[in-house]
Design goal:
Order of helices and strands: HHHHHHHHHHHHHHHHHHHHHHEEEHEHE
Largest sheet: 5 strands, mixed
Radius of gyration: 33 Å
Number of strands: 5
Structural class: mainly alpha
Strand content: 5-15%
Shape: flat
Length: about 550
């Protein structure tokens, strides 16, 4: 520590210029900038690595003495140095109070010794195994009442039935996520957040060991959502706790691989409902083999869905035998969970503090802001812009990953795949002419977002085979509005399909008796890049699914 502080002193003591003519400019552009950065580094040492102050009790006093020297050398930055002195004294006082109340000895981030205040002290005193047992009991009670139909209804768009167990599972998982966020946000110090983070990681490991994968998946995702806070804590917690986070992340990374491993395990176990719904949707949307098989039952798909549903209900065949634990229940009864809006506000507040806070966490004073602007305002502004952009991205990501948003995305994806399958059925020739017209009209109405009654069918006899090469009746869709548009609807557009559409458009134009050719809209769920470039060169409008 003495060597480190000596380096700080040498860096702060910037040599003076021999040519006094440029002294004022040198102080403004160089000296203040160097000294301000030195203060920032010293502040980071106090804030992010307070365990150094615990390991060396006299380090705090040495830093205060160094700052007295800095104040004498640079009175213009006196308020900044005084703020760091206050931060050092608060940290030292906090360490002394923790040590006296808990009989503290050892590493500051030792999670068995560092205790946070009020509710958090109770939390870290509760055994991780007891919390895992309590959560497993809560989840098991819901899984035992889970009906298989609740998992199958969303696959077949059944909306008129109730899903009490599934709704209860989602509600419980949301509350656990809010609980994790609440415990981390309400901590007042770095050391307390370290203790809470490590405790949750041990709860995560206990749930994983009990094969309560629903709880471990939920806690892991909740911690990942709080990455803006725990990213500074992960490097300084114990290695064993850090490894828990990474190992569980890899375990759930591939949902298909997870359920393959699950088949080799003996019950009881609890599956993550979010992963299960994702895998069920993926299995339901597996394509058939094509041709006539498009309308046949795909037993491979049905077996996969049945296996996934059975894995969720296997707890009903062999349940956990759990001891009664009251301590977690009593503790959680007194915890007031933050709402989603409050958690988002805390995230925004944390980001703002990173950008605008003074060296002791309070708002920077006017002289300090002026000094900062003089010594690197452009860089500071760029940093603030990046922070604001990151905050917006976090908010967008949080809204996209919410249960409601995920359900909407999955519903839209299922509708898109259903539309794509219907159009491919039309292209395969397995539907009658009337069915083809109805399917194309409905698909065009969905993709163009218009009333199907605005789409009318135009038909004419192609006697010379201009379109297909043989005489046939040509059917086209016209969108009636301010001006009519020809609407082509295809599941996949390649070179052959585009050539037919161009000939059909020419055929329709030839029947207009000298009227200008109408604009064209191509509604498709899939198109090759080459054809897309060709369509745009023709001036046609292209719309995608939904």
């Amino acid at each position: 520590s003495d060597e480190l502080l000596d380096l700080f002193r040498q860096r702060f003591t910037v040599p003076k210029l021999r040519n006094l003519e440029h002294e004022a400019q040198y102080i403004e552009k160089n000296m203040l900038h160097i000294r301000f950065r030195t203060y920032n580094v010293l502040k980071q040492l106090v804030d992010k690595y307070p365990h150094h102050l615990q390991r060396e009790p006299d380090l705090g006093e040495k830093i205060v003495i160094l700052l007295e020297f800095c104040i004498a050398s640079s009175p213009s930055l006196q308020s900044t140095a005084q703020q760091i002195q206050q931060a050092v004294r608060r940290t030292v006082d906090s360490l002394k109070s923790v040590s006296s109340k808990r009989g503290y000895s050892g590493n500051l981030v030792s999670q068995k010794k560092v205790k946070s205040r009020r509710n958090t002290a109770s939390l870290v005193n509760i055994s991780p195994d007891a919390i895992a047992t309590f959560l497993t009991g809560r989840y098991q009670k819901i899984f035992l009442n889970l009906d298989k139909g609740e998992l199958l209804d969303p696959l077949y768009d059944v909306t008129d039935s109730k899903h009490p167990a599934l709704d209860a599972l989602l509600s419980l998982s949301n509350n656990i996520s809010r609980w994790v966020a609440t415990e981390l946000i309400k901590q007042a110090s770095h050391a307390q957040r370290c203790a809470v983070l490590s405790h949750f990681l041990r709860v995560l490991k206990a749930c994983h060991t009990m094969k309560n994968y629903e709880a471990s998946f939920t806690i892991h995702n909740a911690l990942a959502d709080m990455w803006w806070m725990i990213s500074d804590l992960i490097p300084i917690i114990q290695d064993t706790d850090r490894e828990i986070f990474e190992s569980v992340k890899g375990f759930f990374h591939n949902s298909n691989q997870f359920f393959k491993q699950l088949r080799r395990q003996e019950p009881p176990y609890l599956v993550p409902i979010a992963l299960l719904q994702k895998s069920l949707t993926g299995a339901q949307l597996l394509p058939n083999t094509g041709g006539e098989a498009m309308s046949m039952i795909n037993f491979t798909k049905r077996r996969k869905i049945a296996d996934l549903v059975q894995s969720a209900c296997r707890i009903q065949q062999k349940a956990y035998t759990l001891a009664s634990v009251r301590e977690p229940q009593d503790y959680l009864a007194q915890v007031k969970l933050l709402s989603t809006d409050e958690i988002s506000a805390a995230t925004a507040s944390h980001t703002a503090q990173v950008g605008h806070a003074g060296v002791d966490g309070s708002a920077a004073s006017a002289p300090d802001r002026s000094a900062a602007a003089d010594t690197g305002g452009t860089v500071s502004e760029l940093i603030l812009q990046r922070i604001r952009k990151d905050d917006q991205l976090r908010s967008q990501l949080r809204s996209l990953l919410s249960p409601e948003s995920m359900q909407q995305q999955m519903a839209a994806f299922r509708a898109q795949m259903r539309l794509h399958s219907q159009l491919l059925r039309v292209q395969s020739g397995s539907a009658s002419s009337q069915e083809c017209l109805e399917i194309r009209r409905d698909a065009a109405a969905q993709m163009l977002k218009v009333d199907a009654r605005q789409l009318v069918t135009w038909s004419a006899q192609d006697e010379i085979g201009q379109v297909y090469g043989w005489p046939d009746t040509i059917h086209l869709l016209l969108l009636r509005g301010d001006k009519s548009e020809v609407v082509f609807v295809e599941g996949f557009v390649g070179g052959a399909e585009l050539a037919v559409m161009q000939r059909a458009h020419m055929f329709y134009t030839s029947k207009l008796a000298g009227s200008p050719p109408p604009p064209v809209v191509l509604a498709t769920t899939s198109i090759s890049p080459q054809c897309l470039a060709r369509v745009k060169s023709l001036g046609w409008r292209v719309v995608g699914p939904l």
